[in-house]
């Protein structure tokens, strides 16, 4: 519910395999074929994969060599971020025909509050259909949409019928919908948290809803309140058209622990590539870099450094990232997760101070 007691009408629009779909649209020879956007070199990383590639298990943030093993016919294309940005601007123009309350999360997804829509349509479902139809007609691409009464459920719903689908969850359906989902679908629940929940006997939203807020806070700290409300389909966050990102980063969890210095430096180089691509396409600038490492026993360490100048190029990010890695070498034991984040972001000369509603980008959030 909104603060006024009015039920919000929220749409979460998520483009389908955005980068890869743009490449297939612009090059007919790629249509219907497994396509990966990224570099095919030994140290390359998949930035996005077409649905044909995903059928072979190819995923965003996967090392290119692994992707090729899983799909030998995979076609790599170099990313064209200017093209993706141009399409993204067009899509946001389509959104703006219906509302000014738009909160972009990335180039390919956004929340829209259409409680009071510009055209007086009055129905969030009709607006979502109109937006998806306009995107298809004007860009030649498809989008999926989730329509609901809050952001948490709208985002879950947009992923429900992908690709090129829509899911509507009414207020009276929210708790039941959430109860039916595995907790891994909850935004922010990564592999480690899901593993911890499983050990506690929590596998679904229904299991989570059986726990009171005190129990959740005991096991998950300050995050317990979020889980308590999410399990009941409650999310009072407004769509924030003025949200400012506070950080941009990437992290990867490995099937086999990294132990040697060479392995860790190569893994970090892969992450630098992903982080820089995100920094570049979001035109972000920052002064603080944070390295995160999680050992095989799940202990997590971080190292950070703030510099007196903007970290505005790839080499600076890479150099500082490796300097931070030096601080934990040699590692005590195998490393199962490595991450790098640029924070203290600067926006038009000012340090960003508005709430970062969308949080940090991680590999889990690259592209749907």
UniProtKB/TrEMBL annotation:
Q: Identify the CDD domains for this entry.
A: PolY_Pol_IV_kappa
List, separated by semicolons, the cofactors it needs.
Mg(2+)
Q: How is the cofactor bound?
A: Binds 2 magnesium ions per subunit.
PANTHER family attached here? DNA POLYMERASE KAPPA, DNA REPAIR POLYMERASE UMUC / TRANSFERASE FAMILY MEMBER
Which reaction is catalysed here?
Answer: DNA(n) + a 2'-deoxyribonucleoside 5'-triphosphate = DNA(n+1) + diphosphate
Under the heading Pfam families, the entry gives: IMS (PF00817), IMS_C (PF11799), IMS_HHH (PF11798)
Where located? Cytoplasm
Highest taxon above the source species: Bacteria
Which residues take part in binding Mg(2+)?
14, 108
What GO terms describe the biological role, i.e. biological process, of this protein? DNA repair; DNA-templated DNA replication; error-prone translesion synthesis; SOS response
What are the EC numbers? 2.7.7.7
Show the HAMAP family listed in the entry.
Answer: DNApol_IV
Species of origin reads: Sphingorhabdus rigui
Q: Which residues act catalytically here?
A: 109
Q: Where is the UmuC domain?
A: 10-190
Going by the record, the broad EC class of this enzyme is transferase
This chain's protein is named DNA polymerase IV
| Keywords for this protein | Cytoplasm, DNA damage, DNA repair, DNA replication, DNA-binding, DNA-directed DNA polymerase, Magnesium, Metal-binding, Mutator protein, Nucleotidyltransferase, Transferase
Q: Assembly and interactions?
A: Monomer.
Tell me, what does this protein do in biology?
Answer: Poorly processive, error-prone DNA polymerase involved in untargeted mutagenesis. Copies undamaged DNA at stalled replication forks, which arise in vivo from mismatched or misaligned primer ends. These misaligned primers can be extended by PolIV. Exhibits no 3'-5' exonuclease (proofreading) activity. May be involved in translesional synthesis, in conjunction with the beta clamp from PolIII.
């Amino acid at each position: 519910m909104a603060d006024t007691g009015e039920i919000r009408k929220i749409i979460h629009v998520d483009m389908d395999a955005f980068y890869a779909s743009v490449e297939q649209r612009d090059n007919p020879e790629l249509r219907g074929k497994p396509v990966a956007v990224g570099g095919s070199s030994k140290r390359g990383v998949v930035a996005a994969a077409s649905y044909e590639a995903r059928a072979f298990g190819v995923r965003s943030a996967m090392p290119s060599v692994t992707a090729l093993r899983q799909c030998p016919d995979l076609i790599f294309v170099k990313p064209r971020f200017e093209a993706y940005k141009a399409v993204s601007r067009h899509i946001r123009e389509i959104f703006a025909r219906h509302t000014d309350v738009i909160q972009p999360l990335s180039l390919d997804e956004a929340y829209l509050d259409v409680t009071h829509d510009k055209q007086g349509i009055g129905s969030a479902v009709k607006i979502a259909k109109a937006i998806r139809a306009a995107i298809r007609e004007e860009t030649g691409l498809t989008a999926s949409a989730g329509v609901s009464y809050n952001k948490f459920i709208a985002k879950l719903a947009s992923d429900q019928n992908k690709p090129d689908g829509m899911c509507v969850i009414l207020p009276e359906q929210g708790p039941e919908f959430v109860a039916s989902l595995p907790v891994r679908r909850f935004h922010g629940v990564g592999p480690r948290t899901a593993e911890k929940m499983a050990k506690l006997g929590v596998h679904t939203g229904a299991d989570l809803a059986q726990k009171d807020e005190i129990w959740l806070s005991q096991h998950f700290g300050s995050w317990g309140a979020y889980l308590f409300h999410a399990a009941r389909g409650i999310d009072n966050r407004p769509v924030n058209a003025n949200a400012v990102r506070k950080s941009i980063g990437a992290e990867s969890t490995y099937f086999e622990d990294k132990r040697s210095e060479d392995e860790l430096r190569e893994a970090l180089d892969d992450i630098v590539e992903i982080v820089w691509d995100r920094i570049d396409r979001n035109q972000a600038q920052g002064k603080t870099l944070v390295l995160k490492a999680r050992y095989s026993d799940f202990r997590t360490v971080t190292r950070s450094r703030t510099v007196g100048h903007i970290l505005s190029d790839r080499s600076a990010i890479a150099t500082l990232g490796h300097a931070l890695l030096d601080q934990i070498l040699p590692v005590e034991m195998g490393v199962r997760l490595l991450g790098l984040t640029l924070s203290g972001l600067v926006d038009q000369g000012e340090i960003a101070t508005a709430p970062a509603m969308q949080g940090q980008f991680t590999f889990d959030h690259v592209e749907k």
